[in-house]
Amino acid sequence: MKHYTSIHDIDDINSWIEDAKALKKDPLKHLELGRNKTLGLLFFNSSLRTRLSTQKAALNLGMNPIVMNVSGDAWGIEFGDGTVMNGNTAEHIKEAAAVISQYCDVIAVRAFPTLTDKAKDESEEVLNAFKKYASVPLVNMESATGHPLQALTDAITISEYKKKDRPKVVLSWAPHIKALPHAVANSFTQAMQKMDVDFVITNPKGYNLSPDIVGDTPVIHNQEEALKDADFVYVKNWSSYEDYGKVVNTDPNWMITKEKIGDAKFMHCLPVRRNVIVEDAVLDSDSSIVIQQANNRTYAAQLVLKKILENA
Ligand SMILES: NCCC[C@H](NC(=O)CCC(=O)O)C(=O)O
Ligand SMILES: NC(=O)OP(=O)(O)O
Q: The Aspartate/ornithine carbamoyltransferase carbamoyl-P binding domain covers which part of the protein (predicted)?
């Protein structure tokens, strides 16, 4: 594997899950693999888990991570081809990516969508520009349309906590005051479609994810019906895809409560807004596995970096 930019870069999800569990048992086993290799982490947006767990993963492989907050700290980067750069951007991605490639053996990028320009977001302008102009492997740390490190984490976590061969997994939309990206929900959906699970999505009308992502997965607009007999409830807000980037529903009845969760496990990528997305009683109970889920971010990232280093 050269790059890890989408969940489709996983050839066999079950073998990846087993490999990640092995790394979790013995995280320092491959400390020599990354010796004298540099991982550059570039953040266009905020992060807690991705920023720390990906550095931790690199350190576990003996790599040297270097981090930059691109927005704010670096020169404004121009992505347009042939642009007359007499505006706010001082440096073109062609130079920026080529220069960073000389300092780093692997580059990891976080770049959220605009949520105003669907075509631009779906073209993955920032991620694909790094892929095109960098000369080293690229890792997606959440792009406009996908968060494959999170989805691999989620697959590992479900595998660890499942009590039956084919658990029922529900992806439930939840309310939020802001317009949020589709990336987490998209990649989670794609990961569940690759796993042996009974997977359904529940969201209000007007909130269906891209048909290209949903495919044959059932979408149920009645949350109560969808949650019936669930083993895992994966909760996430996303803005409307149809009315692109808009908040068209803030109905608090979509919040996950103790009553709704029943015997299921509660999952969320974090950060999560308490008593908006999910009530305290769920997060503060044994139903919630969000902390254990976040721990698996390290081993998902470590597996991805290991595969890239082995291929280099
Ligand atoms: N990386 C995990 C989620 C990141 C982002 N959440 C957020 O922006 C939450 C912001 C807030 O709650 O104000 C998202 O939904 O894609
Ligand atoms: N889940 C996740 O990606 O968290 P951060 O945004 O804090 O990195």
A: 2-160
Instruction: Render each residue's pLDDT in the chain as its tens digit; 312 residues.
Output: 899 999 999 999 999 999 999 999 999 999 999 999 999 999 999 999 999 999 999 999 999 999 999 998 999 999 999 999 999 999 999 999 999 999 999 999 999 999 999 999 999 999 999 999 999 999 999 999 999 999 999 999 999 999 999 999 999 999 999 999 999 999 999 999 999 999 999 999 999 999 999 999 999 999 999 999 999 999 999 999 999 999 999 999 999 999 999 999 999 999 999 999 999 999 999 999 999 999 999 999 999 999 999 998
Instruction: Give the position, in ligand 1's atom list, of the atom nearest the Cα of 269.
Output: 2
Tell me how far the alpha carbon of residue 50 lies from the centroid of ligand 2, in angstroms.
5
Whose CA is closest to 186, among 154, 206, 202, 209? 209
Query: What residue owns the CA closest to ligand 1's atom 8?
Result: 180
Answering whether pTM is above 0.90, one says yes
Neighbours of 168 (CB within 10 A): 18
∠ CA 280-282-287, nearest 5°, is: 150
In the chain, DSSP finds a helix count (H) and a strand count (E) of 13, 11
The two three-digit tokens of residue 160, written as one number:
């660890």
Fold of 150-293: Rossmann fold (3.40.50)
Q: Where are the domains of the chain?
A: 7-146+296-311, 150-293
Q: Which CATH architecture has domain 7-146+296-311?
A: 3-Layer(aba) Sandwich (3.40)
